[in-house]
Structures are given as structure tokens and as C-alpha cells.
Design a protein that fits this description.
It is a single chain. About 50% of the residues lie in helices and about 10% in strands. With about 400 residues, the chain is of the alpha/beta class. Among the domains are: about 200 residues, Rossmann fold (3-Layer(aba) Sandwich); about 70 residues. The strands form three sheets. A six-stranded mixed β-sheet has the order 4-2-6-7-1-8, sandwiched between helices. A two-stranded antiparallel sheet has the order 3-5. Helix 6 links the parallel strand 6 and strand 7. Helix 9 runs parallel beside helix 11. The relative contact order is 0.11. It binds adenosine-5'-triphosphate and magnesium ion.
Amino acid sequence: MSLQTTLPYFARPDLLESVTRLLLSGANVTLFAPRRHGKTSFVRHDLLPALHEAGWFAARVDLWRNRDNPELGLVEGLESVAYATSSRSPLTRPLSLASLRATLKVPGVDIEGSWSPASGPTQHPEASLENRLANALHVIAERGNHSLIVLDEFQALAKKSSDNFVASFRTALQDVEGRLSVFFTGSSRDGLMRLFNRSKAPLFRSAESVTLPNLGDNFVDSRADYLNAVASIKVDRDALKRLFPRLCYTPLFLNEITRILLVKGDADLDGAVFEWHRSKYENEYAEWFSSLADVESAVIIWLAISGQKSVYTEEAREFVRKLMQEDAAPPTSRVQTAIRRLTAAQVLEPTGVNGSYEIADQGLQIVISNAVNEDLIRPSRDSLIQFPNSRGPVG
Ligand SMILES: Nc1ncnc2c1ncn2[C@@H]1O[C@H](COP(=O)(O)OP(=O)(O)OP(=O)(O)O)[C@@H](O)[C@H]1O
Ligand SMILES: [Mg+2]
């Protein structure tokens, strides 16, 4: 059993029903959820197939397909949808090199049904990005009896420098209103709100906002059922249900722990959770953490464990001082510099209240609060958190 094993998707019929109802009523929809909570999975496994079934042309473009230039990523993604070719099954079409090439995947683009996204250079190399965008949207709007475009991670356009591009995007969308619906997803509430509030056009304002509901006990049971079905592992279901909220209801993390149980081949949940914390920290955070300034890691630890969001209170500064083992609390300007850097790197996200921040990545938050509870924080240059060689009981 490899760690790459894909666990079964757990369908979300209630969410699908409410989202479909909104889309059929003519509304555009915005779906917010923290990272790794299942937005893209919902779109791929539930939403696109259901609308395709209903006769719509349905596709997804991920704006993070080009992180450095989301505008270009969006336009190229939409072009690859607009100029997609219909790819019937090889049974009805002779298999050729060309047809094999046509089935190649285009990163960050999905089209439901028998379509192959176009790859290769744009058909309009001379046109401006804005014109290419409008063209592609027009072509997509002509497909099927109605078209749906999912724009995944739409907050990638929240930066001020994207304002003009977003304005022309809005205009282009207005031109295809009634023929093309848009489903926006975002993992930054702050980013989406800034974007939609700045762009006060009716099309954005009228988008219905939906929050991805947390998965519950049925999802947890589905993981336990899977362990039992494929490997006869009988995990303690109640313990697994108590664990899920501690993972901030993140399906990816429960899947990762389920996979560890599969690979180990036993039902030792405490052991799997310990292993998960250790590998998460060592593989994803340790190196990055050791590159931070002391005041930066202290602020992150404060936010992870205090349950508070404000970083400039007397209490926060005293906490940071102690952790840095200094005689005096760092001056506000030093904390400000740290916060600015961490916010620019999208490690912290402003809550909208002055001086208040959240850790954007719940994995980081979970790993750090566990390390503090388990007394594993030992600030040193190599690694902030030191896991023991052998495991004590994990609470
Ligand atoms: N309904 C589900 N059933 C089973 N597993 C799920 C489900 N939703 C999410 N997952 C698991 O969580 C992982 C992350 O989900 P997904 O990529 O859809 O989240 P996301 O909200 O789009 O995250 P990001 O903001 O990072 O793009 C998936 O690869 C899958 O392992
Ligand atoms: Mg996603």
C-alpha cells in the first residue's frame, strides 16, 4: 500500500443541491472555505458532473495554475477551455498519435465530458490580455445550452495591481450574462471580500455567497469503513470522531492519518496521530521555520496557542518576550515588521480588525499547538520543535 493511495470521495449531496438551485435561478455563486477543506474536490466530484448531466457545458480553471501571473493563468486557462476539442472515445475514433496528444492534461483546467482542453500557443497572439479574455468567454458561452465556469482560488486577483484587469473581466462577464454562470471559490475570506467590495459591479455584488459546511461524523465513519473494508483494520470510531475537530475538520488531514493506519496495518490511532504530527512538521514546516526570525516564530506560536488574534496587546508582547528569552519586549516596530513579512508571505491573514491576524494554514496551527501541548518546543537554530525518538501517549 503506497502513501499515494487515493481514498474514496465522500459526496456532498446537500451542498450540491443548494448550489445547483442557486445556479439554476441564474445567480453566480461564491464558495469560501479554508485551504484543504475540499472546494476543488466538491467542484470536480459533485458539481461539474451534475451540471454536465443536466446538459450544461461545465469547466474549471484554477487561477493558481500560474502563481506569479494569475491574470495570464486565467486567460490561458479560459482559452484552453474555449478552444477545447471534442474527444470521443478511442472505440469510435481511430487511435493515433494526434488523438493521444489531445488527451494530455492541461494543468489547472478541467472540462467535464468528452472534451480535450486545448494546449499550445494562443490563437490571438496579437490581442491584449483583456481582449483574449472577452473572446474566450464569448466562445465558452456558446457551448451547450448553458455554460458554467468555475474559477478556483479567485482571490488570486485580489491584489491592487489587478484592479483594471478585474474591471474588464466584470464587463466581459456582463456581456455573456444569462448564457454563462460563474462559480467562484476562494480560501481567503479577506481576499475575496476585498476583491468583491472593491469591484462594485452588479455581477459581483449579486453573487450568492455559500460557506462550505464542515464534514461530520458520517465522513469520519466512511474512513473507518474503508479501513475495515480494504485492510480489516478496526479503528476506534469514537476516538476518530473526537480527533476530527482537533484537525479543524480538515478532510485532507483525516485522509492522511487514515493512510498512515493503512500503511502501518494496525489500528493504533495514537501512534498514527503522532506520526502524522511528526511527518507534517518535518516534511512541510521544519526547514521554513528555521529560516524565520525569532520574533516571527514567536508571533506565530502566540497566534497558534493563545486563542487570541491580536498581536499588539501587553499580554502578546510579554509572551513574545519570554519565548525570545529577552529582558525587554521587542519594540512594536519590530513586531510590525515581522507581521508585514508574514502577511506578505500569506502565512498570516488579517481578520479585518485592526492589529488582528489568523494563521492562514490550519496545518501549521494544528502542528504548533500540539507541539506546545506536548512540550516539544525547544527553540534552536536547527528545528523549533523536537520530537522524541519514542512516542508517549498522545492526548
Ligand atoms: N468530500 C471529500 N471526501 C474525501 N476526501 C476529501 C473530500 N474533500 C476533500 N478531501 C480530501 O482533502 C484533499 C484536499 O481537498 P481539496 O483540494 O478539494 O481542498 P481545497 O479546499 O480545494 O484546498 P485548496 O484551497 O488548498 O485548493 C483532497 O485531496 C482529499 O484528499
Ligand atoms: Mg482547491
